[in-house]
């Protein structure tokens, strides 16, 4: 299972609402993520709007493509897009900046 980390930027004036939405993620969205290969998925929000995501997947591109084919993801992404800056017309699930892993304690990287 590969580990992935990514960043997005939440509009500072929308951070509280964004966090609130994630305290009540739709059950069907959670199930779709599980069904399409997203594991150990977490989001972290810094007080300046920096959003850091962590997910494990066999293949992130395949997991993203599988999610893109779900109806619930289309609804969720449409609702979440308004919270972000810098997406240039892409959805949040397409517009994140993937970070390179440079160290992992368990692998001695």
UniProtKB/TrEMBL annotation:
It comes from the Bacteria. InterPro entries: Dimeric_a/b-barrel, Rham/fucose_mutarotase. Coiled coil: none annotated. One of its GO terms (molecular function) is racemase and epimerase activity, acting on carbohydrates and derivatives. One of its GO terms (biological process) is rhamnose catabolic process. This is L-rhamnose mutarotase.
